[in-house]
Design goal:
The protein folds into two domains: 130 residues, 3-Layer(aba) Sandwich (Rossmann fold), CATH 3.40.50; 136 residues, Sandwich (Tumour Suppressor Smad4), CATH 2.60.200.30. Helix content is 18%, strand content 40%. The protein has six helices and 17 strands. It has a six-stranded antiparallel sheet with strand order 7-6-17-14-9-10. A six-stranded antiparallel sheet has the order 13-12-11-8-15-16, with no helix packed on it. The longest helix is centred in the first third of the chain and has 14 residues. The termini are far apart.
């Protein structure tokens, strides 16, 4: 029987990383786990004085048993794309400054791992969106997002003109700096900064949030989860399609993007007493006067 494999995705530049590694890796070592990560983790791995072998992702083809994410929300989005999309559950410890998704604080890191082995953590299954980019009727790119799909203009470009349709019904032509199409998980990310609503992550929904629309009548819209959204680019000097803020594609006039619910869910392992509204109160400072 093969040993269980732990994949580690980490924010390498975090000063907390060696300390947290020294706390969370020993329980896995004592149970005979193997470890794999990006080669950049080798330096903090050594600083943490861990003697187990750390293999690189490129040298392994097997699917890990668990993904340990050490960082902020951006790090977790990377972990979701690389491992969560393959059905690997993710345990996250927040080394960042905010952490809506990676919400488990570093001081509780060892306790969280102990609870994992005691089978006390619960599965938090997050909805995702599937994205397809077409050019001249040909599919040229596709992907899955946990947070959002963003269509945006370049830094010096004029507004983008986009034709929007939902479930085959035309909404209209949006003239704006861009558009965010978000999952409920992503409602506290870019969509939130555009004035979009906060949506509980477990809801089966999709959000459309215009970025600086020319007409104030364009407002954020919440759609049911199985809705298909089509965005056709009518005119733009420079525009980009970005998936979860990490993978990007330049757009040309007449390109169109189709976004719809994906059957894939990303599994986050959480403490059972984690309360979403407590998290919002803490992260958004709602308790302060």
């Amino acid at each position: 029987m093969s040993k269980p494999l732990l994949a580690i995705v980490a924010k390498i530049k975090s000063d907390l990383l060696p300390q947290v590694l020294s706390q969370v890796i020993p329980p896995f070592e004592s149970k005979g786990w193997k470890f794999t990560s990006d080669p950049a983790l080798l330096e903090p791995w050594q600083k943490a004085e861990i003697h187990s072998t750390l293999e690189t992702h490129s040298s392994r083809s097997e699917v890990p048993t668990l993904c340990l994410c050490l960082g902020g929300d951006g790090t977790l989005l990377s972990a979701a794309r690389e491992f969560g999309s393959r059905g690997v559950p993710i345990v996250s410890i927040n080394l960042g400054s905010l952490g809506f998704i990676a919400s488990n604080a570093a001081p509780q890191a060892r306790l969280l791992i102990d609870h994992y082995f005691e089978k006390k953590l619960v599965s938090d299954n997050r909805h995702t969106l599937g994205v397809k980019l077409f050019r001249s009727q040909n599919l040229i790119a596709e992907g899955i997002v946990l947070n959002d799909v963003v269509i945006s203009k370049g830094s010096l470009a004029r507004m983008i003109e986009m034709d929007l349709s939902v479930q085959g019904s035309e909404i209209g032509t949006l003239r704006a700096d861009g558009l965010v199409i978000s999952t409920p998980t992503g409602s506290t990310a870019y969509s939130f900064s555009t004035g979009g609503p906060i949506v509980q992550p477990e809801l089966d929904a999709c959000l459309l949030a215009p970025i600086c629309p020319h007409s104030p009548s364009w407002r954020p819209i919440v759609l049911k989860g199985e809705t298909m959204v089509k965005v056709g680019l009518q005119s733009s000097d420079e525009a980009f399609l970005t998936l979860d803020g990490q993978v990007g594609y330049p757009l040309l006039t007449s390109d169109f993007v189709i976004v719809e619910k994906s059957e894939l869910k990303i599994t986050l392992l959480q403490e059972p007493n984690l309360n979403y509204f407590t998290l919002l109160r803490e992260k958004l400072n709602w308790a302060s006067r």
